[in-house]
Amino acid sequence: MENLHQSISGTKYPIIQAGMVWVSGWKLALACSKAGILGCIGAGSMSPEVLDIHLTKIKTAIGDLPFAVNLPLFYSKIEEQVQLIIKHRVPIVICSAGSPKKFTSIFKENGIKVFHVVPSLQLALKAQDAEVDAVIAEGFEAGGHNGRDETTSLVLLQELQGNLDIPYFAAGGFGTGRSLLAAQVLGASGVQMGSVFVPTIEASCHPNYKNYLCNLPSGATKLSLKPLNPVRLAPNKFFEEVQKLEQRGASKEDLATLLGKGRAKLGMFDGNLEEGELEIGQIISLVKDVLPAGEVVKRIVREYQEAKELVRRG
Ligand SMILES: Cc1cc2nc3c(=O)[nH]c(=O)nc-3n(C[C@H](O)[C@H](O)[C@H](O)COP(=O)(O)O)c2cc1C
């Protein structure tokens, strides 16, 4: 699998384990980097103090392997997080939910590569203008917060192809080796996968949530809270309340009141399956067991190699 991705991310395989609030702490990132992909710590749910601990732990254990930190840019203590990433000499930062102009130059001046998550060609071009090293193009299928325009990964990749000078990774709905090969055929240097790494042993989220996800049928997730901040959710009591409010044409304020504070932590980290917010992507319908992350990577790599062989044979 020698490819452009090796010069960009330095990993054996062209896969990024996505940064995910309440899910991807240092243990998951370490397991993924050890398995040959780019492990990523999700800083979005961490105070600067907690991020410092996770960075210290991964730096002690990871040796020379590459890893990344995902940094949603709307966080109030963002400046402190940026300083921690520089202090710990994190090799790659994956920014999301904010302007790529904001911190790209400071990271690059400190020898840190910058990837930026985008939901459209228009924002990919903006990120390119801001001189990021690569973009991660995330389609409608993805778990977590999402773009409003509902562009699927398949369409987004075709829109990007031939229109960007920098490398791009695909995200949203990728969970198998075959889908990785398909993304490469569409010009991507690799894929970022999130949902398939949620039900893993090393993920920091609650076992209730992991086990629940392993039983979701196809089509169970929905992009919810669109007037507020679109997020793809698994069904539960909270999700039904959101649906009811949305059907009644609820205002942004009504939705914000229902959401309140701490819903994502309540669902994903504390394991409250009724009242919490359970973020997850469409591809979760394929996952039936909680496994070590390294096993998930092995399966994807095996499928990828089989798919390549099939294509070669015609
Ligand atoms: C539980 C969960 C939490 C997420 N949290 C974040 C986050 O903190 N920052 C971010 O940029 N994206 C976040 N995402 C999106 C992922 O980084 C990734 O782009 C997405 O999961 C890819 O699509 P997939 O779920 O179909 O694999 C999250 C996704 C999930 C499933």
From TrEMBL:
<keyword id="KW-0560">Oxidoreductase</keyword>
<keyword id="KW-0503">Monooxygenase</keyword>
<dbReference type="GO" id="GO:0018580">
    <property type="term" value="F:nitronate monooxygenase activity"/>
</dbReference>
<dbReference type="InterPro" id="IPR004136">
    <property type="entry name" value="NMO"/>
</dbReference>
<keyword id="KW-0288">FMN</keyword>
<dbReference type="Pfam" id="PF03060">
    <property type="entry name" value="NMO"/>
</dbReference>
<dbReference type="InterPro" id="IPR013785">
    <property type="entry name" value="Aldolase_TIM"/>
</dbReference>
<protein>
    <submittedName>
        <fullName>Nitronate monooxygenase</fullName>
    </submittedName>
</protein>
<keyword id="KW-0285">Flavoprotein</keyword>
